């Protein structure tokens, strides 16, 4: 069963293997995917918004119908858009999705179906993250970063 409208969000500073799995799942379960992309003001370590948006669009261009919306807080569109049916998250962000559902209930909106994907692991068995990539521990695909690169 596909949901009519699905939401997914993030900074997507490095469009790594974990992000790609998250986005791919959103398109797998949703007819229309709304992607909340964090504002530069929200995440000061992130690349410029337009640069991150371009990378996202290049990855998702043939995956289905979508809309990218700039978000200024972690709840934004997910707590206000009545037509949303599901949210796609990783284990790391599942608690936030549960908070979103509590807020939606208080506002009289239907809770979202939470679709959790497993964490995508790097070569060392630890989750791939932008922080680890930024530190130079791993590459975007989760492989070991060589001393030369």
Write the layout of secondary structure elements.
Layout: E1 3-10, H1 17-29, E2 30-38, H2 49-60, E3 65-71, H3 76-80, E4 86-90, H4 94-106, E5 113-117, H5 130-134
Parallel strand pairs: 1-2, 1-4, 2-3, 4-5
How does this structure look, described?
- A 5-stranded parallel beta sheet has the order 3-2-1-4-5, with helices on both faces.
- The protein is globular.
- It is built from 5 helices and 5 strands; from the N terminus they run E-H-E-H-E-H-E-H-E-H.
- By secondary structure, the chain is α/β, with parallel strands linked by helices.
- It has a single domain, classed as 3-Layer(aba) Sandwich (Rossmann fold), CATH 3.40.50.620.
Strand content: 15-25%
CATH class assignment? Alpha Beta
**Percentage of residues assigned to helices:** 25-40%
Kindly provide the radius of gyration, computed on alpha-carbon positions and rounded to a whole number of angstroms: 15 Å
Quickly list its features.
149 residues, alpha/beta, Rossmann fold, 5-stranded parallel beta sheet, 32% helix, 23% strand
Task: Compose a concise summary of this entry.
The chain has 149 residues and is α/β, with parallel strands linked by helices.
């Amino acid at each position: 069963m596909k949901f009519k409208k699905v939401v997914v969000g993030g900074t997507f500073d490095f469009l790594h293997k974990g992000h790609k799995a998250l986005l791919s799942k959103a398109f797998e379960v949703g007819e229309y995917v709304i992607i909340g992309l964090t504002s530069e003001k929200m995440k000061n370590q992130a690349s410029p918004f337009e640069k991150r948006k371009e990378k996202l669009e290049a990855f998702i261009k043939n995956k289905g119908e979508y809309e990218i919306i700039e978000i200024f807080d972690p709840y934004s569109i997910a707590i206000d858009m009545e037509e949303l049916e599901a949210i796609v998250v990783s284990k790391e962000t599942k608690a936030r999705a549960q908070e979103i559902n509590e807020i939606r209930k208080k506002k009289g909106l239907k809770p979202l179906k939470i679709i959790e994907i497993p964490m995508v692991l790097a070569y060392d068995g630890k989750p791939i993250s932008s922080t680890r990539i930024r530190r130079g521990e791993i590459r975007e695909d989760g492989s070991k970063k060589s001393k030369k690169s």
